[in-house]
Every structure is written in C-alpha cells, then in structure tokens.
Design a protein that fits this description.
Layout lengths: L4 H5 L29 E6 L5 E9 L4 E6 L2 E6 L5 E4 L11 E5 L4 E7 L5 E6 L3 E6 L3 E6 L17 E6 L4 E12 L2 E6 L4 E5 L5 E5 L13 E5 L4 E8 L5 E5 L4 E3 L5 E6 L5 E2 L7 E4 L12 E2 L18 E5 L2 E6 L6 E7 L10 E8 L2 E5 L3 E2 L5 E6 L6 E8 L8 E9 L1
Antiparallel strand pairs: 1-2, 1-5, 2-3, 3-4, 5-20, 6-7, 6-10, 7-8, 8-9, 10-15, 11-12, 11-15, 12-13, 13-14, 16-17, 16-20, 17-18, 18-19, 21-32, 22-25, 23-24, 24-32, 25-31, 26-30, 26-32, 27-28, 27-29, 27-31
Length: 414
C-alpha cells in the first residue's frame, strides 16, 4: 500500500533563509542526515557497476559512506553516478497538478494562487514554491486518480487550453494569464478573458507557446522524488548544517531523505535516455491491422524489481517489440549500457526477444536472446569513434510475443 502524499508532505519544512552557492562536494555535510536510521541504497558508478548497502553518512569531505556486508566503505563523489533510495512510491494528490519545465524537470503537487508571472505549487519533496511561467512548457491537471491525460500534437506559436475528458479533448488557442487555486485565467484568440474552473470546466492542461522557451540554468544534480517529481539544481548548505536544494528554475527547499527516490550527479558523465528527446521513432506491429504503440519512459515504466543486488528499474525505456528509436549520441560518450528484460503478461510468457543496436545505420551489437520472465541481461556497447546517432531496435522472435515490450533498465550513455 502506498504512503499518502499528504502524510509525508506534512513532515516537510521549507528553507526560510537565503542561501549562497558553493562547491558541491564541500557542501555535502555529515550533519544533514546523521541521526536518521540508515537507508538501503543502490549506488551506481560511472562505469555501470552497482554497490548496494546502508547509507550511513554523506560526509563534509565529499564522500558517501555505505555499510556493505558489515564493512563500512567510503566512495568519493567522483565514483558516484547516482544514488537510488529503496523506498516505495507514494500516491499523488487527487485533483492536483503536474508542472513540466522546458529543461525536463517535472513537479507534481497542489496549486496555490499564482499571479501573472508565477505559478505557486506545494510539492511532496520541496514544500511550497513559486516558479516563473516563462520556465514552464505545460501545466497539467490530474483527476481523482492522480493521473493526467496525454496531450495531442506539439507546442504551437500560441498558448493552448485543453478541455475535455480522457476520450474527448478540445483545444482553445489564446494566452495564459495566470493559474490560481482551482482555476485558470485564459484569454482566447478573439480576446475574450475567462476564468475556467479546473473541475467544473474540465480543464486538462495549458500548454505554453513554444516561443516562450527559457533555457534552464546549469545544474549539478537531479533529484527524483517518491511521487515522480524530478528537479535539477545545486545542493547547498544551510547554516544549521542541513542539506538544501536550490532549483535551477528558481526556489529553494530543504532536502528530506524520506521523500527522495534518487539523486543523480551530472558531472559523472552519465546521460540517461530519459533526459534526451528521441530523433526518430517507428513501430511496425507484427499484425498490420494493429495500431502502433508508443515507447514508455521512466515514470511510465511498470513496477521495478527490488531484489538486493539487482539493477533498480527507477529509470529506463520500455520499447514495444518491433519498434525502433533513435537518439543523438551526447558529446564525449564512448559507451551505451543497459540491462534488458522481457516481462510476463498476466502470468503467460510472451516469447523471446533481443535488442539490436545500430550506430549511424551500421550494426554494432545484437544481444543474446532473452525469454519472458527471465533474469535481466546486461548490455554494454562501445560506440564507434565519431558516431553521431544510436538506434535501438526491439526485435520480437515469436508471434506470441508480438504484443510485448522490451524493458531497458538504466539505459544510458557514458
């Protein structure tokens, strides 16, 4: 059973004092989480190795201390790509909101009264924040189940208000004026200003015009939270020795380990596929009359295995069998790594599959064949020098497996 959002959020405290920036390693202080019971974590190294143990201390000397098999082990931050906390997801608030930022950050929460420049939101992991509308790409409103409806098409030259239900979506072009508690103030293209109740008028979302894009600030870490929120920024020190988080999009908050899912270090040279936008995607179903399926990424993935020592499915890619997806290779990347699995569906096997990888149109790797429900298969591929694009093809090898989806855990460039 999931922990309630309101119960966890009630234990948060927000940062009230103004904080200065500083070097990341020097500001990770031991006093921040000392006294809390040790947390089981999966520590991922830049080369893809995993270390599993109890997190004892985040030291002022820039080292993480883990207890592994009864032995205290220290890891300098240069040897850490990410730290994943073994804590269950929490239910998102009903009739809440999802803020999607241009830089890829995502914040779930409940909206408060904003103004013509800012949106106000109360979140699980970061408390109450006010963020500039110019940083936002989309404001989505969740229903009683905490979910949101996917939006059709792409951003246009105007703001767009989406009204309707899961089966019917109407789009109204115009200009967003402000977002307040329970409503959106919007001006139509004809110049008519109106207040739309998020529940009474069935408001699904507001998508901001593509001309409003604002590049995010440089970041040192990305924090993921148990409700699916992700925020980039810099970890800074509070005067009392605690850890605080300064968001790239503005705002400051105290970090509470009990709300965290993971912390990723951008300086590690690891780029997750979820942080990239695909260049191309194509899915050809096994049966011609079937509808093409989309890929799933990160939060949309099914429940991850939590057995000690296994790679957690916190982030990754779910690729329909028969689908091809292409990414631009980040500058400096020399390898692509993942762990592939083929899940079972309702207890019935879905057959066999394999992952085929191409660089600039040339085959560089074909994985071993894996069977549905089997153990994960690590995949590590050296990228050819000068390669610019990487294509991933999920090949289904049985008709019975035609409706399956190949999961790529922790898929990333390194």
């Amino acid at each position: 059973m999931s922990t309630s959002w309101s119960k966890v959020a009630g234990g948060l405290t927000t940062l009230m004092a103004s904080l200065g920036r500083g070097a990341l390693a020097g500001l990770l202080v031991a006093a921040s989480w000392r006294g809390q019971s040790p947390a089981l974590v999966h520590l991922e190294h830049p080369d893809g190795r995993m270390s599993v143990g109890q997190l004892l201390e985040w030291g002022a000397d820039g080292r993480l201390s883990l207890e592994m098999a009864g032995t205290r082990t220290h890891f300098p931050l240069s040897e850490v790509a990410s730290v994943s906390f073994s804590q269950p997801r929490v239910a998102r608030p009903s009739n809440g909101a999802l803020l999607v930022f241009h830089g890829g950050d995502r914040l779930w929460g409940t909206l408060d009264d904003g103004n013509f420049d800012e949106v106000a939101i109360t979140t699980l992991g970061l408390g109450s924040l006010r963020v500039l509308i110019d940083h936002l790409a989309v404001v989505q409103f969740s229903g009683p189940d905490g979910g949101v409806v996917p939006l059709p098409g792409e951003a246009s030259d105007e703001d767009e208000l989406f009204l309707g239900t899961k089966t019917r979506v109407d789009r109204l072009p115009g200009e967003l004026l402000k977002v307040v508690r329970g409503a959106v103030v919007f001006t139509s293209a004809a110049g008519n200003e109106r207040r739309f109740g998020t529940v009474s008028d069935q408001v699904l979302a507001v998508r901001l015009a593509k001309s409003d894009r604002t590049p995010p600030a440089a970041v040192g870490v990305v924090c993921s939270f148990r409700d699916g929120s992700r925020a980039s920024g810099t970890i800074v020190a509070k005067p009392d020795g605690g850890l605080a988080f300064q968001l790239a999009v503005g705002g400051e908050a105290t970090l509470d380990r009990n709300t965290l899912s993971a912390i990723e270090f951008r300086a590690s040279g690891v780029t997750a596929l979820g942080d990239l936008t695909p260049l191309r995607y194509q899915h050809e179903p096994f049966f011609p009359e079937a509808q093409p399926a989309m890929w799933l990424c990160d939060d949309a993935l099914p429940v991850r295995p939590t057995a000690p020592g296994t790679r957690p499915w916190r982030r990754g890619l779910g690729l329909p069998l028969g689908a091809k997806i292409t990414y631009a290779i980040p500058n400096g990347a020399t390898r692509f790594t993942t762990e592939i699995r083929l899940p079972e569906a309702r207890g019935a096997a879905l057959g066999r599959a394999r992952l085929c990888i191409f660089a600039d149109g040339h085959s560089v790797s074909e994985s071993e064949t894996i069977a549905a429900g089997g153990i994960g298969l690590p995949v590590q591929v050296a990228l050819p020098a000068g390669a610019r694009e990487l294509e991933l093809y999920a090949e289904g090898l049985d008709i019975v497996g035609s409706g399956g989806r190949l999961l790529l855990a922790s898929a990333s460039f390194r």
